[in-house]
Specification:
The chain has six helices and two strands. By secondary structure, it is mainly α. Helix 5 packs antiparallel against helix 6.
Length: about 180
């Protein structure tokens, strides 16, 4: 199988389950951003030295791949037939449980923190910011073409998880949070 088809040379792409749209269509942008987030998660997984983080991040990557396929399939009947659920209630509950678990390792926040610290923590912060962009785009798509609410909930929790993972990476490395201080103070 060749990697190129030439079908997109005029600026259009196929949606999964049928139909063609412009490559700058909001739906294509959203699942493209999910793909970008998945790549950021891969960088974070490669950077961490913690097997529990790496295993979690790989599960998240699989869910993000499912989510991208879900978003690339606008027809709900085709999504169901192809078994493309996007994000499940269990996926969201797992994120919440992991947030609670890893947050229990951390001192309470007293100030805003800056992204950075260890390379793995910086990668987690990058994933968090890309995830927030995915969330904004997903909300815009939901306004145009209503989505399953679990998609929005999953992406929202996921950015929270990346924040906690970044802090936990730094804590496990013996680094504290890098607190923001207003300039001139």
């Amino acid at each position: 199988m060749k990697i190129y088809t030439r079908r997109g040379d005029r600026g259009e792409t196929d949606l999964f389950g049928g139909g063609r749209v412009a490559k700058d269509h909001l739906r294509v942008s959203v699942y493209g951003e999910v793909d970008e987030l998945n790549a950021c998660v891969g960088v974070a997984a490669a950077a961490t030295q913690h097997e529990d983080f790496r295993a979690l991040l790989q599960r998240i990557q699989n869910t993000l791949f499912d989510l991208g396929a879900h978003l690339a399939t606008p027809d709900a009947a085709r999504r169901e037939k192809a078994d493309l659920p996007g994000a499940s209630r269990e996926d969201i509950e797992e994120l919440e449980a992991k947030i609670d678990l890893f947050e229990s390792e951390l001192a309470p926040l007293k100030n805003f923190i800056l992204p950075g610290g260890s390379p793995a923590a910086a990668a987690m912060h990058l994933a968090r910011t890309v995830c927030r962009r995915v969330e904004r785009s997903t909300v815009a798509l939901d306004r145009e073409d209503p989505l399953d609410e679990r998609v929005l909930r999953y992406v929202n929790r996921l950015s929270d998880l990346f924040f906690v993972l970044a802090r936990a990476e730094n804590a496990r490395a013996g680094l504290g949070d890098i607190e923001w201080s207003a300039r001139g103070k």
